[in-house]
Amino acid sequence: MVEGEGGLKYVLVLKDGMSGYVELVACLQATADTAYPALIDWFKRFGVVHQWTSDQGAHFRNQIIEQLQRALGAHHHFVTAYTPWANGTVEVVNPEVLKAMKALLSERRLSVRDWPALLPVVQAALNGMPANRLGGKTPLTAFTALAGGSQLTSILHPRELVDTLVEWVTQDLQAHLEDVRVALECLHAEMVDASEKRRRAARERHSLRPGVKLQKFSEGDFVLAATATGRSGNKLALLWRGPKRIVKALNDFTFEVTDIIPPFDVSVRHASRLQLYREAALRSCRNKPYMERVAISWKHCAIAD
């Protein structure tokens, strides 16, 4: 975020995975000194959460948070590096926060530095929005059993000089949307087959590309593991090292691998960064741009007395 009033620059997003309830905490810095009190503040109001999921940022992976996790008897799961989709539950909140913040700043004609003052409004909007996956309930209701949704309870009827409940607007809107849905279904009926054929063909072409389908691994497999080198200005350039052995499958796509020589270091790798070990693959994957080879041949010379 742009530096706001008071030097605030970051927003820490805390989200309950079941209900989708979020808390947005404005921070001066992305450090453990800001993450720790935010977690404590959540626990003191809603109770201790025993399952945490986060990325591997230094503000989460440190001794302070580790001591808190041990003291509370919680389990802290770190998603694999360079795989933001593994933490998509909270990652999807970020664009929603930015979109709502831009809309409010523009509507209220405020300076971009005033965003910290609007953060509670954005949080209330996110938690008060009914969600289809919650059966039309809001995250606030699902998480705290408090009434959520719009704070407006009654309005003036547009065609009659009487007050009416907001539910009338919802019912009238739903009836109109149902008519629109039926009309669109009729309009799109002839397009569905053609669209499905195009998607099927695109998926087939995509599946033929190398590296799209992830390899299946099991505990005990010997593999090559990729490491980002950062060479040539590309932080995602990969260097394959191995062989290593898979010692534990954390889930279908994340594995613990260990070196087969001392000190037997253990690391967590995503399936997209692993491939089964083969001697030929090792020779082809190792990148040694600075190795020089010199061809030497010996010739016999007779020495005359």
UniProtKB/TrEMBL annotation:
Domain Integrase catalytic: 1-147
Tree of life domain: Eukaryota
A biological-process GO annotation: DNA integration
Coiled coil location: none
Molecular functions (GO terms): nucleic acid binding
Transmembrane segments: none
PANTHER family: PROTEIN CBG26694 (PTHR37984), PROTEIN NYNRIN-LIKE (PTHR37984:SF5)
Record protein name field: Integrase catalytic domain-containing protein
Naturally occurring in which organism (per UniProt): Phytophthora fragariae
UniProt lineage: Eukaryota, Sar, Stramenopiles, Oomycota, Peronosporomycetes
